[in-house]
């Protein structure tokens, strides 16, 4: 028997999450049966999607959802030998049993000098989200101008860099001067702190007077109400998230964008990264090669200690992180 620690959703969030919404529990895990493996978490992830998904896909008393990089410590499944590493959607737990369903081995040939935590970030779901949002949804082309908000986050920072690699002009914004400085280091063409400007419309117009061909939206809400009218004819908008709305107790309303979409003939499409799961193997190898070649840079906001997961989650929702928020066990 192995003792596992888990974080439970004690009660559904009302507004911004608080400590009392979580509960730390201990459970006993039995030895693996034939076809099963026992996993030990090494790195865990906190991501914005957990906030809306906690309401739509979880019951009170469930283990908080989420991904982790885990090590196989016992195995009765030949596909996952002891000592190998996998990406697993086991949620906020230190140990777990799996029959192998949904486990994704860390890509073969993983470079020794690249931390395994990147399998939750630049070489994982956030990196894939950036890649597919640009290539599949926006179908971005060289010479085009891209706008991305929450640009210093796990997804946004990848979006801007990949767009630059594709020969695009990139405008990005973030909520602190330190984050704006980071975007400049990544090679963004124009950056600004959306919390200190006097007018978002003026800032967007100054950064690209001719407008935007593509808009990668992580924020939603009032930001998009201002950004959509700045699009060029036949512009494309990839709706990845709406973090500005996740903690609202009263839904936000208008202004509305339909008139702009009609007269500018815009394409606006929401997406989930799982749509292109069949491409993941080759896409992850592309991301690895870009990291190795120095074309794709990354930053991680690392919190040590499983007991600090709720604090790390709430900090991520407040924007404390530059790059990917990771918990190290």
TrEMBL record:
<dbReference type="InterPro" id="IPR036291">
    <property type="entry name" value="NAD(P)-bd_dom_sf"/>
</dbReference>
<dbReference type="Pfam" id="PF00107">
    <property type="entry name" value="ADH_zinc_N"/>
</dbReference>
<keyword id="KW-0521">NADP</keyword>
<keyword id="KW-0276">Fatty acid metabolism</keyword>
<dbReference type="GO" id="GO:0005737">
    <property type="term" value="C:cytoplasm"/>
</dbReference>
<dbReference type="InterPro" id="IPR020843">
    <property type="entry name" value="ER"/>
</dbReference>
<comment type="subunit">
    <text>Monomer or homodimer.</text>
</comment>
<protein>
    <recommendedName>
        <fullName>Prostaglandin reductase 1</fullName>
        <ecNumber>1.3.1.48</ecNumber>
        <ecNumber>1.3.1.74</ecNumber>
    </recommendedName>
</protein>
<feature type="domain" description="Enoyl reductase (ER)">
    <location>
        <begin position="15"/>
        <end position="327"/>
    </location>
</feature>
<dbReference type="GO" id="GO:0047522">
    <property type="term" value="F:15-oxoprostaglandin 13-reductase [NAD(P)+] activity"/>
</dbReference>
<keyword id="KW-0644">Prostaglandin metabolism</keyword>
<keyword id="KW-0443">Lipid metabolism</keyword>
<dbReference type="InterPro" id="IPR011032">
    <property type="entry name" value="GroES-like_sf"/>
</dbReference>
<dbReference type="GO" id="GO:0006693">
    <property type="term" value="P:prostaglandin metabolic process"/>
</dbReference>
<dbReference type="InterPro" id="IPR014190">
    <property type="entry name" value="PTGR1"/>
</dbReference>
<dbReference type="GO" id="GO:0032440">
    <property type="term" value="F:2-alkenal reductase [NAD(P)H] activity"/>
</dbReference>
<comment type="similarity">
    <text>Belongs to the NADP-dependent oxidoreductase L4BD family.</text>
</comment>
<dbReference type="InterPro" id="IPR045010">
    <property type="entry name" value="MDR_fam"/>
</dbReference>
<keyword id="KW-0379">Hydroxylation</keyword>
<dbReference type="InterPro" id="IPR013149">
    <property type="entry name" value="ADH-like_C"/>
</dbReference>
<keyword id="KW-0560">Oxidoreductase</keyword>
<keyword id="KW-0597">Phosphoprotein</keyword>
<keyword id="KW-0007">Acetylation</keyword>
<dbReference type="InterPro" id="IPR041694">
    <property type="entry name" value="ADH_N_2"/>
</dbReference>
<dbReference type="Pfam" id="PF16884">
    <property type="entry name" value="ADH_N_2"/>
</dbReference>
<keyword id="KW-0963">Cytoplasm</keyword>
